[in-house]
Amino acid sequence: MTEDMQLGRPVPVPASPDEAVLDRVPNPHPGTDYVTRFTCPEFTSLCPVTGQPDFAHIVIDYVPGDWLVESKSLKLFMVSFRNHAAFHEDCTVGIGKRLVARLEPRWLRIGGYWFPRGGIPIDVFWQTGNPPEGLWIPDQGVSPYRGRG
After folding, report:
1. Is residue 47 among the annotated active site residues?
2. Which residue of the set 23, 40, 54, 61 is catalytic?
3. Helix, strand, or coil here: 77?
């Protein structure tokens, strides 16, 4: 299974999110609803206007169907945004849609908690619809931006 995957071998950071490959592995519990969470507290991209770095805390929750995302490939995908110029909304929603296209999860939500740009923090949230009924979904645990006060 790992011979065509990035897992277990040296892989350079993709030059862009479009070049990044998201590897997937079979879900060992495809008939069970459960939440898998990935947290990327040091996400960076570039402002498409100024070229300055933007920083975010990204939280991804999903209920797998038949597939799980392989974590090394997800890390490389997330790092590929470091030299990618896009608005906060494009990065956040684009990550969510890319994961949905690759994994076909039963449900996915993503929260992009962005640090201020021009003095205004911008938080972006997207999900695929209603989560499965009866599923325990914890709060994403990221406080709203409060500055130094």
Report:
1. yes
2. 54
3. helix
